[in-house]
Amino acid sequence: MASLATTYETGFVHRQSVVEADIDFMGHVNNLIYLRWAAEMAERHWETAATPEMKASGLWVVLRHEIDYLRELKLGDEVELRTWVDPVKGVRCPRHVDIRKAGTEKPSARVLTTWTFIDAATHRPKRLPADIKALFGM
Fold first, then answer.
1. Given 3.40.50.150, 3.10.129.10, 3.40.50.620, 2.40.37.20, which CATH number is that of 18-135?
2. Which of 46, 69, 72, 106 is 20 to 30 A from 25 via CA?
3. CA 108: distance to chain centroid?
4. Using one digit for the tens of pLDDT, what is the confidence trace for 13-65?
5. Domain boundaries, the chain
6. Concatenated DSSP letters for 70-109?
7. pTM of the model
8. In the sheet that 109-119 helps form, which strands lie side by side, from edge to edge?
């Protein structure tokens, strides 16, 4: 299982390059791509960290996305993405994604997504089980 990801410093990290399909008519990464990257980071982190039993117990769905676009990224840029989670509030689980050009100190975008965990059978929100809370350092 992956280590706890509870802050930027301990966040789950992934690197990738900006490709042609990510670019909009203005020559930089399209705003919708940042949203896709945030969702993909949550999935990568879950797939890496969770046990098969955890994955079978429920599904994650988005309740809300908030994105701050700060600096542009362009074709060929190497991008570092980091994700971490805050403690749950009821059935709401806040997840951060920091997106920046690799090697820089300032983010290109910050995403805060509120997720909820739903029961795999009923598709109704449920509180996070203790093992999943522990996985996320709660």
1. 3.10.129.10
2. 106
3. 15
4. 999 999 999 999 999 999 999 999 999 999 999 999 999 999 999 999 999 99
5. 18-135
6. -S---TT-EEEEEEEEPPPBTTEEEEEEEEEETT-SS-SE
7. 0.91
8. 12-17, 78-85, 92-101, 109-119, 58-69
